[in-house]
């Protein structure tokens, strides 16, 4: 059986008891950290805490050559570890489908996810979020504009937008992500974009997460500290959301009267 185990957000302590016991019982343990990273731990620390040898996989091992994983799981329990919750990443859904097609049973053990953590940390309401999106780094000076389009479509439907940030090389910062969006907004002559509220979150799941809300023009130079970073551009706020942002994210009190 191939068992997908979510490790949580930050370090080796985030795993559920069910996930930990599953790893200990498994005959083989794989892990991947290209879809998301855990900045508060290392492979060595994971191996020591879980009491198992862990084999690190790359993108090609999962997306192009998954046979090793699937065949290993054909006659014994194999734990496939990843940060966050396993099925947030579409590549894991694909791996699960391939395993089932090959006659290998699968199971999921969920972990805490950035999708829910940002809601708890910010005080924004779950049912008011639209589609999330990822901001990639510019490639050969080409800036992908789809994240901006997702934001505008969500805003038209009065829905908040969660922005995940590129981690392929050095993890992108909130400041870098906002500057990419500002570049797109200037290109489209959307000069009011900088007046939108932004909720920045750093190191969710750690003992010292940072949550800061302010208008884009005022938060651009804010120091959020080490990664991982993510941010939300909210749509119109419920009065309770405004109070939560002021209390928990040090948002400017003018949002109580401003139409946001």
How would you characterize this protein structure?
The protein is α/β, with parallel strands linked by helices and 260 residues long. Helices cover 34% and strands 18% of the residues. The chain has helices at 17-25, 43-50, 59-63, 67-72, 90-101, 114-122, 146-156, 174-187, 216-219, 239-249, and strands at residues 2-6, 28-32, 55-57, 78-82, 106-109, 133-135, 161-165, 197-202, 210-215, 229-233. It has a 5-stranded parallel beta sheet with strand order 3-2-4-1-5, sandwiched between helices. A 5-stranded mixed beta sheet has the order 6-7-10-8-9. β8 and β9 (210-215) form a beta hairpin. The mean pLDDT is 96. It is an enzyme of class 2 (transferase). Belongs to the diphthine synthase family. This is Diphthine synthase. S-adenosyl-L-methionine binds at residues 9, 85, 88, 113-114, 165, 204, 229.
How would you sum up this structure in a few lines?
This protein has 260 residues and is an alpha/beta fold.
Taken together, the total number of domains comes to 2
Strand arrangement across the biggest beta sheet:
3-2-4-1-5
Q: Considering the protein shown, what is the CATH homologous superfamily of the largest domain?
A: Tetrapyrrole methylase, C-terminal domain
- Rg, nearest Å: 20 Å
Q: What is the CATH architecture descriptor of the largest domain?
A: 2-Layer Sandwich
Quaternary state reads single chain
Task: Compute the separation of the termini in Å.
Answer: 49 Å
Structural class: alpha/beta
Tell me about the biggest sheet?
A: 5 strands, parallel
CATH class value of the largest domain: Alpha Beta
The percent range for helix content is 25-40%
Strand content: 15-25%
